[in-house]
Amino acid sequence: MRMLVLGHGKTGKLVAEVATERGHGVHVLDAKENPRGAALTAPFVAGFDVVIDFTTPEAVLTNLRACLAVGAKVVVGTTGWYQQLNDMTSLAIRKDAALLHGTNYSIGVQVMLQLAKQMTDSLKKYGYDFKIEETHHTQKLDAPSGTAVSIQQAMNAAGEVPIESIREGDVAGIHIAEAISAGDKLSLRHEAFGRRGFAEGAVRAAEWLSTRKGVYDFRDIFTQI
């Protein structure tokens, strides 16, 4: 399979490495080669089976519009653009394209989302308070993280759970969800040791998407990959 990777940052590089290890042909475009999506012409995009975007919140929407408009299959690992999700969904459907989005492509995080929902549903009636804390590297542009927002949504039985965002060092990602009462505290913690888990999940998602059309959330398909 031929994969186009948009973004040559730390995660984008790992995505390319993992895709190559899994036997795929890979072409990488960095920001200098793709100013404002200019490289994503219809003939160029048609040469690839799947596009994987790990760019920035500023670049991702331009890339999505260019790729989806020509019916491409796109996996998006970039966060910070979800206010336009409905528009991108409509575009993908109109153009008979495929879009798979996710705030986190780690399998462990997907399980954490399920556990966070269960924790909140079970403890809300007993008077527990809930909170979320997320820590990432200083280069991460969006705060709170998309993953923290997904955890918040999973805990919606408790209303809008507050999120504390911390930016320090080169932390790949730590997410903590807590339920606290006068008598005890229950914590769910996920810590990424690096970005490889995200890259592996994104490549597996691209393999899954390569035979499909429509719009999907990674949390809905991760058990199938």
Automatic annotation (TrEMBL):
InterPro entries linked to this entry = DapB_C, DapB_N, DHDPR_bac, NAD(P)-bd_dom_sf
Q: In which pathway does it act?
A: Amino-acid biosynthesis; L-lysine biosynthesis via DAP pathway; (S)-tetrahydrodipicolinate from L-aspartate: step 4/4
E.C. code: 1.17.1.8
**Reactions catalysed according to its record:** (S)-2,3,4,5-tetrahydrodipicolinate + NADP(+) + H2O = (2S,4S)-4-hydroxy-2,3,4,5-tetrahydrodipicolinate + NADPH + H(+); (S)-2,3,4,5-tetrahydrodipicolinate + NAD(+) + H2O = (2S,4S)-4-hydroxy-2,3,4,5-tetrahydrodipicolinate + NADH + H(+)
Tell me which domain of life the UniProt entry assigns to the organism this sequence originates from. Answer: Bacteria
GO CC field: cytosol
Keywords (A to Z) from UniProt: Amino-acid biosynthesis, Diaminopimelate biosynthesis, Lysine biosynthesis, NAD, NADP, Oxidoreductase
What is any Pfam family matched here? Answer: DapB_N
| Residue ranges of every copy of the Dihydrodipicolinate reductase N-terminal domain listed in the record | 1-100
GO biological process terms, alphabetically, are: diaminopimelate biosynthetic process; lysine biosynthetic process via diaminopimelate
Q: Which EC class, in a word?
A: oxidoreductase
GO MF: 4-hydroxy-tetrahydrodipicolinate reductase
- Report domain Dihydrodipicolinate reductase C-terminal positions: 108-221
The family this protein is said to belong to: Belongs to the DapB family.
Please give the name of this protein.
4-hydroxy-tetrahydrodipicolinate reductase
**Species per Swiss-Prot/TrEMBL record:** Terriglobus roseus
